[in-house]
Amino acid sequence: MRKGSFSLGLVGLFALILPLGALAQAEPKGPAEVFQRAQEARDAPRLPADHPPIPSDHPPVPPAAKARDAGEIEVSEESVREALIGVELAKAEPDDSVGAGEILVLVLDEDGAPLPGMDVRLGVMVSDGSRRDESATTDESGHARFRELPTGTNQAYRVSIGFDGARVGADPFRLEPDRGYKVLLRRAATTRDARYLLQALASTQIEFRQEGRVRITQGARLFNPTRSIYVFPEGGREIRLPPGFIAFQSRASMSDQRLIPNELGFRVEGSVPPGYHELVWAYDLPLEGSELLIRMPATFPNTMAHRVVSDFVEGMVMEVEGISQVFQHTMGGKRLFIAERRMAATDFPLDELKVRLSGIPDDTAWRRYSMGLAALIVLLGVLGLFIRRGRPREVDAALQNARIAALVEAIRTLDREREAGEIGPEYHAREREELVAEMAEILAARPASD
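User: That's the sequence. What structure does it adopt?
Assistant: C-alpha cells below.
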C-alpha cells in the first residue's frame, strides 16, 4: 500500500467495482437518462410517504409550485454529455518552453479572455505526507509563474484558483528534471442550489475485521450535470454518522472537496465541478452480541441509487429499510450480502439509512475467520517478496491466483484515483506499470501446464 493512501478493504473494493459486473443496472445508462433524472430532481414535487405509486399512464405531474429563478441554470442533454465526458476547466502538461523547476499558469474567464489580478494557489504534497501552499497573482496577460521548485518524485504539485466559494484545480503532477509545466485554468459560473447536485450512488460496506468492532466504509458518488460549479453552503454540508462511531478516516487527496471530522460525524466543504466526483470515508462501530443496527440520516438528497454490501456468513440475515430485495453474491471467492435500489425522482426519498444485521457469529468464529485472512495476507506478502527479488519458487496455484486478484484490485484503485484527479498521470503510469509487471512475473513463473 502506498504511503498516505486510504485502504477501502476487500468489501469496499467489491462494492465500488460491482457496477462493472453484476450490478450494472444501478448506473445511469447514458446522457439521456442522466438528463431526465436531473430534470426530474429539479422539477418534481416530493410526494408524501403514504402517497400511492403514480401509474405509468398518469398525466405528467406539474413542476413544484414555485416561481423559477431568474438565474435558472440550464440542464440539457448537451451539458450532461459534457459533464460525463469531463468539462475541461483545468489542464496541466509538461512543456519544453518552460524552464526546469518552473510552472507557468494562464487563467481565463468564462468567455476565454485572460483574467488579471487573480490569486493562484500552488499546493505541494510531499512524500512524507506534509503539505504547504505557495501563491502568485496573474499579470495583465493572465499569467502567473512559480520558480525554483524541486523536481522529482518526492513531491506533487496542484495549481488552483478560488472564486465565489468554488475552486478549480488541475490534476496533481510531478515536475520533470529537464522541463517545466504549463497549466491552464478557467473560471466558471457557480451555484449553491442543491437541486443541481445529484448523488449517483450512495454506498455502504460492512466488514467484520476485528473482535468487538465492525468496519463501515461509505461512499458518495456525486454528479454535477451542469456547466456551473456547485458550491457547498456556508459551513459545509453536515453528515451525521451513527452514534458511538470511532476511528474515523477519510482518504487524503488534493481534490476540491474537504471532509472535516467533528463529534457528530463530519462536514463536507468546498465545491463540485461538472462531472463525477467520489467521496469516501470509513469508521468503526462497536459490536456486542449477535445483532448490529446501523442508523444515520441520508448523506445527500437527489440520490439515484442506494447500495449496501456486507460480509456474509451462513446464518446471518441483513435487512435494509426501504430496500426489499437483499441477495447473496460471490466475487473473488468472497460471499457477500447485497441490497440495492434505483430511485426515481417521484419516489419518496430515503431520508435515513437503517441497516439491521442479525445472526452474527460470536467472536470466536470471527477470530478464526480473521486469523485465516491474516495468514493469507502474510503468505501473499511472502510470495510477492520472492517474485520481486526474481527468485523462482514453486508456490501453490491458489496463492498465485489470490495475489493476481489483489493486484487487479490495486490497479483498479489506482485507475480510480487517477480519474478522481488525486494522482498525476506520471505517478499513475509508473505505479500501474509496476503492478502489471509483477502480475506478468507471477504468470511467467507458472508451470507450462497452467
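The chain has three domains: 9-36+193-360, 90-187, 366-445.
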